[in-house]
Amino acid sequence: MNEDMVDPVLPPGKALEQQAEPLEPPVSSCRVLVDKRRVLFVSISQIGEFSDPMGEREKQPFRNRKEMKDLPFEGKGAIGDANAMVAAECDSDVSRYLLVEFTVGESLDGDTVRRREKIDRFAKEYTKAVKEAVSCSA
Q1: Which is nearest to 9 in space by CA: 127, 107, 136?
Q2: For the chain, what is the total number of helices (H) and then of strands (E)?
Q3: Neighbour tally for 134: CB within 10 Å
Q4: How much is the pTM?
Q5: Cβ–Cβ contacts within 10 Å for residue 128, how many?
Q6: CB–CB of 107/37 below 8 Å?
Q7: pLDDT tens digits, 91-103
Q8: How far is CA 35 from the centre of its chain?
Q9: H or E element in which residue 76 lies
Q10: The dihedral of CA 73, 75, 81, 83: what is its sign?
Q11: Is 52 helix (H, G, I), strand (E, B) or coil?
Q12: How far is residue 36 from each of residues 43, 101, 114, measured CA to CA in Å?
């Protein structure tokens, strides 16, 4: 995970640690710790069937779920007070869709509106980068 990309969702601290699994199908994940506290968790699933982040089945992990707007790719997204979920089209040899889930520590920003803006920006940029990394053509 590129430090410049993740910087907006990191709280201040001295020690940054990344615990990442390889980006291999069907699922991989990454934890980012600042001063030994988990501040970001990302899960990437390469799937064959569309999973709507605004659907009934996906509502559980969210607090104050809203639909994400202006995705820079084909797909759908949802954002909550401390998390986001993005389903993006991905016509690759492995899957038809990517499902990328993000959870941040609420210590990121005490202002919920600003925290949601940071999550939204990061989720869009990160998902776009993952699509490129796994060679999505869609």
Answers
A1: 107
A2: 2, 7
A3: 19
A4: 0.88
A5: 17
A6: yes
A7: 888 889 999 999 9
A8: 21
A9: strand 75-79
A10: negative
A11: coil
A12: 19, 21, 24
